[in-house]
Write a structure and sequence with these properties.
Elements: E1 2-12, E2 18-28, E3 32-36, H1 43-50, E4 58-63, E5 66-67, H2 68-75, E6 79-82, H3 94-104, H4 109-122, H5 138-149, E7 156-160, H6 168-185, E8 188-193, H7 196-202, E9 205-210, E10 213-218, H8 220-227, E11 231-235, H9 239-249, E12 258-261, E13 264-268, H10 272-285, E14 292-296, H11 300-312
Parallel strand pairs: 3-8, 3-9, 6-7, 7-8
Antiparallel strand pairs: 1-2, 1-4, 4-5, 9-10, 11-13, 11-14, 12-13
The structure holds adenosine-5'-triphosphate.
Domain ABC transporter: 4-236
Pfam families: ABC_tran
GO molecular function: ATP binding
Length: 317
C-alpha cells in the first residue's frame, strides 16, 4: 500500500519558472523516502504540493489513497510538515508547545499528556521540557519541532531539509530520531535533502531530482551499485585545461562517463584497468599535458553528478 502516489506532477510559477516537470513517484507506507537534489531542483515545490499548500498545474496525487485535489481537508489532519523555519513557539517550553498543539488537534487532555510523555521519553528530550525553546541550539529546536509535530500522530511526516546547516553530531541525533519515528511509530517519512550521505544512511527509497525532473529512483543499495565501480581521476594543471581536454576525450569515451571536478576529470568506467591503458595511451599519443592518472573509488557526489549529467544529456539510466 502506498502512502503517496504522484503521477506526472507539473508546476510552473507565475514568473515562468517550471519548478516541476512531469514528476512521478510512489512512497510506500512506513518507509523513509528521500527527495535528493541541489538548490532549485524543485524539492520544496513538490513538498508544498504534497502537503496541500500549493496546487499543481497538472498531475494526479493520492495521499493515503485519497485524491489530493478533492480531499485536501480530509488529508491535512493525517499529515504533518516540518519546514526549514521551525514552527515551534520559542517563548514557550516544549511541554507548553505540545499541550497547545494537542488543543489545536482537539486531543483530550489525558490522552495528550500520555502522548507527550511518550514522545519526550522516546526521543530522550527530558532535559528540554521546561525551559523556553529559545534557550536551545538550532539543532535541538528542530528536534523539538519534530516531536511537537508528532503530537497529532501523523501518518505521514514531511520534512524539508531537516538537517541543513547542522553539525555532524546534531545530524546524527536527527537521523536517530527519524529512524525511531519510522521503526517505532510506523510513520511514513518524506524528506528533502541536499546530502547524498544522509539519503543513503536513512532512506528505504531515494529519488534524485534535477531541474524539476526526476533523474532516478531506487533503494540506496541500487544507487550504491554505481559507487562500487572504480573510477579514473585524470589530473590537470587547471580546470580550464581539464574542460578543454574532456572535449578530446569524448572522441574515445562517452561524455556521460566524464565530469570535471576542480582541476580533474573524473571518469566512471566498467573496466578500470583496460580504460586506464586506453586513456593513458590516448593522452600520451596526443601529447596532452596531464599530471597523472589515479584509480579512485567514486564518492556519492560522483554518482549524483553522473546521474544528473546523464539526465541533462537525455540518456536513460
Ligand atoms: N514562489 C515562487 N515563485 C517563483 N519561482 C519560485 C517560487 N518558489 C520557487 N521558485 C523557483 O522554482 C524552482 C524550484 O524551487 P524549489 O524551492 O522548489 O527548489 P528546491 O529544490 O527546494 O531548492 P532549495 O534547496 O534551494 O530550497 C527554482 O528555480 C526557484 O527559484
Amino acid at each position: 500500500m502506498y502512502a503517496i502516489q504522484a503521477q506526472d506532477v507539473s508546476k510552473t510559477y507565475k514568473n515562468g519558472v517550471r519548478a516541476l516537470d512531469h514528476v512521478s513517484l510512489n512512497v510506500r507506507k512506513g518507509e523513509i523516502f528521500s527527495l535528493l537534489g541541489q538548490n532549485g531542483a524543485g524539492k520544496s515545490t513538490l513538498i508544498r504540493i504534497l502537503t496541500t499548500y500549493l496546487k499543481p498545474d497538472l498531475g494526479l496525487v493520492q495521499i493515503l489513497g485519497k485524491n489530493l485535489s478533492m480531499k485536501a481537508a480530509r488529508i491535512r489532519p493525517k499529515i504533518a510538515c516540518v519546514g526549514q523555519q521551525t514552527s515551534i513557539d520559542t517563548y514557550l517550553s516544549l511541554e507548553e508547545n505540545m499541550m497547545f498543539q494537542s488543543r489545536l488537534y482537539r486531543i483530550p487532555k489525558t490522552q495528550a499528556k500520555l502522548r507527550m510523555e511518550k514522545l519526550i521519553q522516546d526521543f530522550g528530550l527530558q532535559s528540554y521540557r521546561k525551559y523556553p525553546v529559545s534557550s536551545y541550539s538550532g539543532g535541538i529546536k528542530r528536534r523539538l519541532d519534530i516531536a511537537l509535530n508528532m503530537m497529532s500522530a501523523p501518518e505521514i511526516l514531511f520534512l524539508d531539509e531537516p538537517t541543513v546547516g547542522m553539525d555532524i553530531q546534531s545530524r546524527m541525533a536527527m537521523w536517530d530520531m527519524l529512524k525511531k519515528i519510522r521503526n517505532d511509530f510506523g510513520t511514513t517519512i518524506f524528506l528533502t535533502t541536499h546530502y547524498l550521505e544522509e539519503a543513503d544512511i536513512l532512506s528505504n527509497t531515494v529519488c534524485i531530482m534535477k531541474d524539476g525532473k526526476e533523474v532516478t529512483q531506487g533503494t540506496p543499495e541500487e544507487l550504491r551499485s554505481f559507487i562500487r565501480q572504480d573510477a579514473l581521476r585524470i589530473l590537470f594543471p587547471t580546470k580550464a585545461e581539464a574542460e578543454k581536454q574532456m572535449v578530446f576525450l569524448q572522441s574515445v569515451f562517452p561524455a556521460s562517463q566524464m565530469t570535471v571536478r576542480n582541476t580533474d576529470i573524473m571518469m566512471n568506467t566498467e573496466d578500470v584497468r583496460s580504460d586506464l591503458e586506453r586513456t593513458a595511451g590516448f593522452l600520451l599519443e596526443a601529447h596532452i599535458p596531464f599530471y597523472g592518472i589515479q584509480i579512485v573509488q567514486p564518492t556519492l557526489e560522483d554518482v549524483f553528478l553522473r546521474l544528473t549529467k546523464k539526465k541533462e544529456m537525455g540518456e536513460e539510466k
